[in-house]
Known about the structure:
The structure holds two protein chains of two kinds. By secondary structure, chain A is mostly helical. Chain A has helices at residues 2-21, 25-40, 42-46, 53-81, 93-111, 125-142, 146-166, 173-203, 205-213. In chain A, helix 5 (93-111) packs antiparallel against helix 6 and helix 6 runs antiparallel to helix 7. The N and C termini of chain A lie far apart (43 Å). Chain A has one domain. Chain B has three domains: 1-209, no CATH class; 216-498, no CATH class; 572-619. In chain B, the strands form two sheets. Chain B has a two-stranded antiparallel sheet. In chain B, strands 3-4 form a two-stranded antiparallel sheet. Chain B is globular. The chains are: A mainly alpha, B mainly alpha. Chains A and B meet through helix 5 and helix 6 of A and helix 24 of B.
Amino acid sequence: MTIWIDAACILVVFFSLSILAAYRIGGMIQMFAVQSLVLSFMPVLMHSHALSLRDILLSLGTMVLKAVLVPYILFWAIRHVSMRSEVKPIIGIGSSIVCGALLIAGSFWVSSSVTFPGKIASDLVIPCSLATVLLGFMIMVTRTRAVTQVVGYLVMENGIFLFALSLFDAMPILIEMGILLDIFAAVFIMAIVVNHINEEFERSPAAVKRWSKMGESI
Amino acid sequence: MEIIFSKIWQVPFGALSLRLDPLSVLFLTAITILFFCAGIYSMGYLRPYQGKKPLVWHVFCYLFLAMMFGVVVTANNVILFLSAWELMSIATYFLIIFHDETPSVRRAGFLYLMATHCGTFCLFLMFFLMAHTAGSMNFDVMAHASFSPVVAGTIFSLALIGFGVKAGFLPFHIWLPHAHPAAPSHISAVLSGVAIKTGIYGICRVLWIMGVLPEWCGYALLLIGVVSGLMGVLYALGQHELKKLLAYHSIENIGIIAIGLGIGMLGRTYHLAFVSALGFAGALLHVLNHALFKGLLFLGAGSVIQKTHTGDLDRLGGLAKIMPYTSVLFLVGALSICGLPLFNGFISEFVIFYGLFQGLLTLPLQGVFSCGVGIVSLALMGALALACFAKVYGTIFLGKPRRTGDSALFQEKERNRALSPVLREATSKWMIVAMAVLAGLCAWIGLAPRNAVRLTFAGGEYLSRGVLMKEDFEKLMAPLSMIIGTVFIFMAVIAVLVLVRKVLLGKGSMPIQDTWACGFAQVSPKFQYTSSSFARPIVELMKKILMFSRQGGKVVGEFPVQAHMISAVKDASEEGMFRPLYIRFIRLSRKLDERRNKYTQMYLMYIFLFLIFLLIWKLR
């Protein structure tokens, strides 16, 4: 089973990197959905020797929420607000990828010295989750649109989710469910806020000017 | 000698440890008496605000503040002390901004909050340095640690700044003359009587913890005391606002207390237990006494302001006829603060003087010099305070009302002359009772000082960390009882003279007439000596250090027409030190704000880089 887990881990990092490299917001969201789908198989894969109801529930919950509902809301937001579809990066796509590669290498380098209490499903889990967190952060730093910030935040959360899965036995399912609910609420609120900001901008062009000076755009 | 009460407290480095020793007993006494009296007073004072102001919140803050004062002076743990200290500062803030509809009150409250937090910053540094050196957060463990001279000096300097802001040492006193007039009167009484004393308590506690301090510390405290005392009373002379004047007098009295502490420290440094105990005992007794008489004066000022709706000395006058009780009680407070025999101010100043003279006899040369300076300046402070209170009492209670509005009030009272004095005064009886209790305590300590002096002498002995004989206390009491005996004889002589006068005059009543006005036909109340003109000779003498300014006031021609005069004394440390500093600070902040990067991503980037730095630093 380890090979499947390794494959899933590598896929997660790969999708994080491709979100960083994406030109269009729609593409970013789609790739995030696929990443979450891959991630949602992880609980089942990790505990395949003794599958319990709890693993299946968590798997299904993640799948429904992160691979379907959240991308749906994000798509709804960009459609509803009629924003332009470019990502508007601060640094170019090429250099983003180079930086991302460096971050991945760095996280492998750093995590080789982490000693972990207890058994881990695969050696790749820790460096991959760290790399995903850092890449998510990188997306937040280098992309200027409101929705891309949210996507970066979600990628980061996926990294944390992957890390938390390796602690699965130590972590009550209630907390994991709570975190999922938080994510859902956060994205939901973001959609509403973006919608309201858009309405405000339609009313006063001066606000748009001020907003763009602050380095943000819808 | 001391009782320690400990319970487990789930706070890192904290312990719910309270201590009761002679030092905290003394401060607790002052706190309890003043909070009780000011609370009774507020029952009458706050009545007009019923239904207009959130009084429940005010009362809550008041009681909470009382509790926090209690914790501050009994805490035995750094964390507990600092928590109580901060909560105390915040509760005080809410009490000060009672009249928050006035912008100046809000500004004063904010200034207080800023000053107290700057002070607390120094306290944090000081306590952590102390705890680091001693290896414990508990005061009783710290007291057994030994500090190197450099560390001890640093801790003492930080204490002087941190606690000095609260106590009102020059030049950190600037919040005091703003906050005291802004607060309602019973809060001013508590602020001046107890709140600034917590600063003194802090310094005493540091002195107690640090058994051995470098030599210069004592001289420094003595110097601060002399400067604060003299400047405080000089500034007070130049004020026209009653409560602001009283606030500057608080600075003067803090100076007197600091002189006492300074001589105590000098005595301790040179191992002269008696000098040290006298200095500390005098300072502690003055803490108690100042709480009593300054509380009384502020409460009296509150009654005056409640009746006339102004605290401007040059618009008041003749109130002794309208408010007979308040005027007598205010007089008691004024006599006490001037340090005249019969009342308590004299006792504590006598103990400090006695300590200074003992120091003059036994200290080495530089100590003799500083004791001489202390004696001279303490005497000068007494004289200037007397001048200041002659001015205050004379302008407010004697003479005639200076405003037309007050004349109407005055005439109405004249019509009610037949009524009993209580009805004539028409001040709430709660307010009178509270002031009477404080005045009674002032007189009690003044006339029978043995108990109070013994209590504070125990505190002084505790602080001096020396061993004293029983005779030492009697050595202090002997001259004191002699002076009080003389005072009693003097009083008896005066009483006899009054009796003789009454007998000689017989039954016929004396006619009441206006003062002779040098032949002027139309006499106006404006002819009276004002507070500014009374203080002018002294203030003009000190023009250079007081930043005294005067405009107008020239009277020309044989038949002069209207003339105006405005005089003002500016606070040098506020105008010359903190205001320029503040302006420069604001300018710098503006410049930095322009330079600031306004991209959210930049801030995220800083976090990101720091995260990577931490990962590499901690994991590699």
